[in-house]
Design goal:
By secondary structure, the protein is α+β, with helices and mostly antiparallel strands. It contains 28 helices and 31 strands. The strands form 7 sheets. A 7-stranded mixed sheet has the order 19-31-30-29-20-27-28, sandwiched between helices. It has a 6-stranded antiparallel sheet with strand order 11-10-12-18-13-16, with no helix packed on it. Strand 1 and strand 2 form a beta hairpin. Helix 10 packs parallel to helix 28, helix 13 packs antiparallel against helix 16 and helix 15 runs parallel beside helix 28. The chain is elongated, with a radius of gyration of 34 Å. The chain starts with 7 loop residues before the first strand and ends in an 8-residue tail after the last helix.
């Protein structure tokens, strides 16, 4: 961490100052520190009037404020919001003070240069910063301190903190805009009188009075209403990085300053121009703020499912605490009608749980001791004691939120051009403004044209074009249980023209049931017992089906140690009686075992012991109810469809016929699936691979876009670019349709942003556009981009 300069705090104004500026006063044997002689004099006057209570009351209030501010950068406090992935840690922050694309560039650039920072990505649309860092080289406290040094206020991201930040921003904007609008209306009355006097004649004294009144009314508009722009411009200059606030401030302050000069010289004033610039831009930001709030409401509603408070069971009773303070192995009490704050396991009690919010299932499910529960689900009927299995930041809902955050922070390729333009945009505008001023230097009012150039230029439209659309799209997708891992994935999905499916657990329910036992020179119970020994403990759907059949028939299912799994083939287990093999016909054939080959429409698991064929177990897995609907929707979109399965050819052919898939490939290993996907990619097709198992991971990685279904294996979900949090295949065509529409909207936004600036700036430089109209056009350009992006929120499933 950087060493902090020692600072003192003034007794009177409570501002920090360096020891070199110290002014002291001894009162009642106490040495008091002041930042200047003015504060010392003010203190003595207040004390002399017997009003010392002013400092006591202010100290209490300031203490509360300082404690809250200090807490934001407290290492222990910030550590609660850090997640870990190997050697890398991440923290998500809400950043106050971001106003344009230049702010985003500055934050990312400075953090990229900060020691220990691995990645820093700011979402302009949500004002969220996702930082990946090396915990051995830097800390969240140091990161927050660095952000504060350049003029931005960071806070750890939580739904409650986001809500408070949004409310603070909106309340401040409303107050400033209301004040500016009210005073601007009064100012327009004075301006109309001045314009009338200019055309029809006016008494000089009356004219001067109206100008003075205009100056008095315009001053709070410029310096109170426009304070966010002035503050942003100051930090822009201090950080040597031009931003939009600098352009607005230069335009506003130049109009205001010139008007003061003209007032003293008896010339024409433009206080109304300065005031209207501030008012119109505040109006645009107010709308933009509401639009951001509306666009992010989908994921926020999901996050708010998990309650912020929990009741922890201790040796002294039940204590209510913040959910983020819960640790793994804590015990909590959740009553009927309450939502579960974290993921856990039921220790005692039996209840029904509404899981519709996380998996879309409409009917409640019974949960008993030993069963898992998910954060955000609703406890319907009974009090239960829960063992915490994951802290709040690692719960299902938190992981979903992180996926959406990463999607919104990850930039789409279309944004790269906009980013490159935005970085040179403001310096270029400043050069054009200077050139305009020099060109019109000898003309009366020529400086107004230069000011209009500053005001009309809008990097915001460029900055918002992509992230706003991505935010709305990912928020809409999250409401439907669709999780994109980034804006680049959205763009990738828009290019997809071939969808490849795994079978078991993807097109089917993934709960195969044993339908027939075909023993060979042994009893059916012996066949099932041997198969169950190898299957017990495995997560493969066929293994679970065999284990379930063994339990129902009273056959021993004790899991064996050292079972070797051969992906896409089967298992091998060394027993006292010899090598036990279970798997496909091809697997046994490769191992030198002669087995009867069939072409049934059911899945089969063949069993051999010590080189001798034992028999075959047939299992049936029901197709998902929505599978045919999903495939039909994909075909209507012009998509090719493909089935890739490790199952036998007869089963694959049956599934492909029922669902009307274009092609199928059977008896594949994971490597075979990946190779087929790569062949399709090399032939020019853009493939979406949909799977849920370990054996699908190589194909998911090889595909243009990999899609995993929640409920599958962790490795499949980690390998995927697109995750279906709800096992509903109709979400696949909707996700692809949403992606196509999002890319279309982004292109429209970028076209508008580039076209607007290419037209508006030359108009302003040529003197064809008045400053007030320029400010209105600038605000309108951002509003158009935001409103166009919000259209994605209305897109729904067919």
């Amino acid at each position: 961490m950087m060493a902090e300069n020692p600072q003192l705090r003034c007794i009177h104004c409570d501002l920090p100052f360096s020891p070199a500026e110290r002014v002291t006063e001894t009162v009642d044997d106490d040495v008091l520190n002041f930042c200047c002689h003015g504060c010392r004099g003010a203190y003595l006057i207040i004390r002399g009037a017997g009003l010392e209570s002013f400092y006591r009351r202010r100290k209490r209030k300031a203490g509360i404020i300082r404690e809250a501010f200090t807490r934001q950068f407290d290492a222990e406090y910030l550590q609660r919001y850090v997640t870990h992935a190997g050697d890398k840690s991440e923290i998500s922050l809400i950043i106050e003070g971001i106003h344009c694309a230049a702010c985003v560039w500055l934050i990312e650039r400075l953090l990229d240069e900060h020691p220990g920072i691995i990645t820093a990505r700011v979402n302009f649309a949500t004002h969220r910063l996702l930082v990946g860092f090396d915990p051995t080289r830097t800390t969240p406290s140091a990161i927050c301190t660095r952000l504060a040094e350049i003029g931005y206020l960071p806070r750890p991201y939580t739904p409650d903190e986001l809500q408070r930040a949004v409310e603070r921003e909106r309340r401040s904007l409303l107050l400033r805009f209301g004040t500016a609008a009210f005073l601007s209306m009064q100012l327009m009355g004075f301006s109309i009188a001045l314009y009338g006097g200019y055309l029809r004649g006016i008494d000089p004294d009356t004219r001067q009075l109206l100008q003075i009144l205009a100056a008095l009314v315009a001053t709070p508009v410029v310096f109170y209403g426009g304070f966010p722009f002035l503050r942003g411009a100051w930090f822009s200059l201090r950080n040597r990085s031009a931003n939009m606030d600098l352009l607005i401030t230069l335009g506003t302050v130049s109009a205001y300053s010139y008007s003061l000069y003209a007032l003293s010289r008896g010339g024409e004033v433009y206080f109304d121009t300065a005031a209207m610039i501030v008012t119109l831009i505040l109006a645009g930001r107010l709308y933009e703020s509401g639009a951001r709030r509306q666009a992010s409401s989908g994921i926020d509603r999901l996050l708010q499912l998990a309650p912020s408070r929990a009741r922890r069971i201790t040796g002294e009773g039940v204590v209510e605490i913040d959910s983020h303070q819960l640790l793994v192995a804590d015990h909590i009490l959740v009553g009927a009608g309450e939502r579960f704050p974290v993921d856990g396991q039921i220790l005692s009690g039996c209840t029904e749980v509404d899981e519709a919010a996380v998996n879309g299932e409409p009917l409640p499910v019974v949960r008993e001791p030993g069963m898992k529960i998910v954060a955000g689900t609703l406890n319907l009927s009974g009090n239960v004691e829960i063992l915490v299995t994951a802290v709040a930041n690692e719960s299902f809902i938190a992981r979903v939120a992180r996926l959406v955050e990463q999607a919104q922070a990850c930039k789409a390729p279309l944004q790269r051009l906009a980013d490159r333009v935005a970085m040179i945009f403001i310096p270029l505008v400043l050069l054009v403004a200077v050139g305009t001023w020099l060109y019109w230097f000898d003309q009366p009012g020529g400086w107004l044209h230069a000011m209009t150039v500053l005001v009309v230029a809008c990097p915001c439209a460029l900055g918002l074009a992509t992230p706003m659309a991505v935010m709305v799209a990912t928020g809409n997708a999250a409401e439907h249980g669709i999780l994109f891992r980034g804006g680049d994935i959205l763009e990738g999905c828009a290019q997809v023209d071939l969808v490849a499916f795994d079978k078991t657990g993807t097109l089917t329910d993934g709960r195969p049931l044993v339908t027939h036992l075909s023993p060979h020179e042994c009893s059916a119970e012996r066949l099932l017992e041997l198969a169950a020994r190898a299957a017990a403990g495995s997560s493969h759907p066929l293994a679970r089906g065999i284990t379930q059949a063994a339990v129902e028939r009273g056959v021993s299912t004790l899991p064996a140690a050292h079972v070797q799994t051969i992906p896409g083939r089967g298992t091998a287990l060394h027993t006292d009686a010899g090598l036990l093999l279970t798997g496909s016909w091809r697997y046994l054939h490769e191992q030198g075992v002669t087995a009867a080959r069939t072409e049934h429409e059911r899945s089969e698991v063949h069993v051999a012991l010590h080189g001798k064929y034992i028999g075959c177990i047939s299992l049936a897995d029901q197709l998902r109810d929505e599978a045919a609907t999903a495939v039909a929707a994909l075909k209507r979109m012009g998509m090719g469809t493909l089935l890739l399965t490790g199952d036998q050819t007869g089963v694959a052919a049956y599934i492909a016929t029922i669902l009307r898939l274009d092609k199928y490939h059977a008896e594949l290993t994971p490597a075979d699936k990946a190779a087929l996907i790569k062949d399709a990619e090399r032939s020019g097709q853009h493939t979406l691979m949909v799977g849920d198992g370990i054996n699908d991971a190589p194909a998911l990685v090889s595909a243009h876009v990999g899609c995993a279904i929640s409920g599958g294996t962790d490795i499949a979900i980690e390998s995927a670019d697109l995750v279906l949090a709800r096992a509903d295949l109709t979400n696949i065509p909707f996700a692809l349709r949403l992606a196509r529409q999002t890319v279309r909207i982004i292109r429209q936004n970028l076209l508008w942003a580039f076209s607007y600036n290419l037209v508006a700036i030359p108009l302003a430089a040529s003197g064809k556009l008045a400053p007030v109209y320029g400010a209105a056009a600038m605000a309108l350009s951002s509003v158009c981009v935001v409103a166009n992006s919000l259209r994605l929120k209305r897109l729904r499933k067919d």
